[in-house]
Design brief:
With 137 residues, the protein is an alpha/beta fold. Helices cover 35% and strands 21% of the residues. The chain contains 5 helices and 6 strands. Strands 3-2-1-4-5-6 form a 6-stranded parallel sheet, sandwiched between helices. It is globular and about 35 Å long.
Length: 137
């Protein structure tokens, strides 16, 4: 029987333009997962540095410069879970549907960061919870 050695939270930071309220939401979620002892994994593009304030105690998963989008992101996250022997059902994923849903589709606990009017509709269709920045709520 497969037993996960830990939980992980993957944060899709590939969307280049995120509001300050979305940044605050991500920072709070990162802090919450760190407090729970979860492995925090920041998914970033190779040509863009990850936010410094989120780096402490986290793992950075850099997508290659040749990454074509959602499929490559999904593949990188699945490979990371396999290498770390982490059960996908125990993993969390945070991302906005503006940057794509690939990362959210491969984890057991997806969390959609609201990024536009279609976020809520698409998330409801898939049964995924939407986290709304406090300035929007």
């Amino acid at each position: 029987m497969f037993r996960p050695i830990r939980r992980a939270a993957f944060f899709d930071l590939t969307h280049p333009e995120r509001s300050w309220s979305e940044d605050a939401l991500v920072s709070d979620a990162v802090a919450g997962h760190r407090a729970e002892g979860d492995l925090v994994v920041l998914v970033v593009e190779a040509r863009r540095p990850p936010p410094r304030r989120l780096l402490a105690g986290g793992t950075v998963l850099r997508l290659p410069a040749s990454a074509a989008g959602d499929t490559d992101k999904c593949t990188a996250v699945v490979e990371a879970m396999i290498r770390l022997c982490i059960d996908p059902a125990s993993c969390f994923g945070y991302g906005d549907l503006c940057a794509g849903a690939g990362l959210l589709g491969v984890v057991g606990n997806p969390r959609v960061i609201a990024c536009g009017a279609d976020s809520g509709r698409l998330a409801r269709e898939r049964g995924w919870p939407v986290v709304v920045p406090s300035s929007v709520a």
